[in-house]
Q: What sequence folds into this?
């Protein structure tokens, strides 16, 4: 179902450190991923917008030359969260504090009997003490299930595109910044109402029972740079079925980011930047790409592989 799929791609910048221990070996890919990369420019400045997948495999590297060139051209990088916040040891504690129940109820009180039984089965299969979940809200438990399942499939948060480029920027001495604060991003999850949270954990369990097919489909689409498949797989149904949630986790955040990106474009002088955010934020009419195009900037997709394919 689209709700859990979309949230997973958007919010896995805040992750459980123990999840990476489950990473499996995967075969080497034949070619670099086709990037979701756009160049937005005015008369003197340019911003490169790069769509991220927050957990990746060793076989997803090296990146394409297009990404390398954008990185080389950029004087600074921006991410959803600054590297200092994203990599801070305090980040997991912030998430757990937000997820702790304060209403005197337990997780079991909030879930129906069928969902609780399925959660018991999942915890048993994964050696997770179920009592450790009982003091948390459903969104946190659903997120934990998604992370564990994705890492079981060989997707590692330590290899996510954001983390890779944060490390590369630090090594190159390039300034970095965040488009939002950690508390704002955590609030995207913690702000879900009770119905949305129950839906989130139910769909996480359903996906765990189905196996890796859906995650693999989205990862493959990201590797192909397939805008249409990603939009249809992550956003189109969600926008129709869960419009309030879609607005909060996607549209509202995009609207908040666009002015910060425009500040880079509008400042005098040649000061280019590479902005790296979850892929969903760049797609469709609600995405950052189209919002900047609508404001009169020159926008072009940077995709050597696309041009090579069209020429065949």
A:
């Amino acid at each position: 179902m689209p709700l859990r799929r979309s949230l997973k791609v958007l919010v896995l910048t805040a992750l459980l450190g123990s999840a990476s221990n489950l990473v499996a070996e995967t075969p080497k890919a034949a070619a670099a991923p086709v990037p979701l990369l756009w160049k937005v420019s005015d008369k003197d400045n340019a911003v490169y917008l790069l769509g991220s997948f927050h957990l990746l495999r060793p076989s997803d590297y090296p990146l394409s030359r297009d990404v390398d060139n954008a990185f080389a051209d950029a004087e600074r990088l921006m991410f959803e969260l600054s590297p200092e916040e994203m990599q801070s040891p305090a980040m997991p504690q912030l998430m757990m504090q937000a997820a702790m129940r304060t209403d005197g109820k337990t997780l079991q009180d909030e879930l129906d009997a069928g969902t609780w039984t399925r959660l018991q089965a999942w915890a048993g299969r994964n050696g997770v003490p179920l009592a450790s979940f009982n003091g948390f809200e459903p969104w946190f438990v659903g997120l934990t299930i998604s992370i564990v399942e994705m890492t079981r499939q060989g997707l590692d948060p330590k290899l996510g595109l954001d983390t890779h480029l944060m490390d590369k920027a630090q090594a190159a001495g390039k300034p970095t910044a965040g488009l939002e604060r950690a508390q704002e991003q955590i609030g995207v999850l913690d702000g879900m109402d009770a119905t949305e949270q129950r839906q989130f954990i139910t769909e996480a369990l359903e996906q765990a029972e189905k196996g890796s097919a859906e995650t693999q489909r989205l990862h493959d689409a990201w590797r192909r740079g397939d805008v249409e498949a990603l939009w249809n797989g992550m956003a189109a149904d969600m926008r129709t079925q869960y419009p309030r949630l879609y607005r909060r986790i996607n549209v509202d955040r995009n609207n908040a980011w666009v002015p910060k990106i425009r500040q880079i474009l509008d400042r005098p002088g040649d000061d280019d930047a590479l902005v790296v955010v979850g892929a969903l934020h760049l797609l469709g009419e609600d995405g950052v790409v189209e919002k900047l195009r609508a404001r009169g900037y020159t926008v072009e997709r940077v995709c050597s592989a696309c041009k090579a394919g069209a020429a065949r």
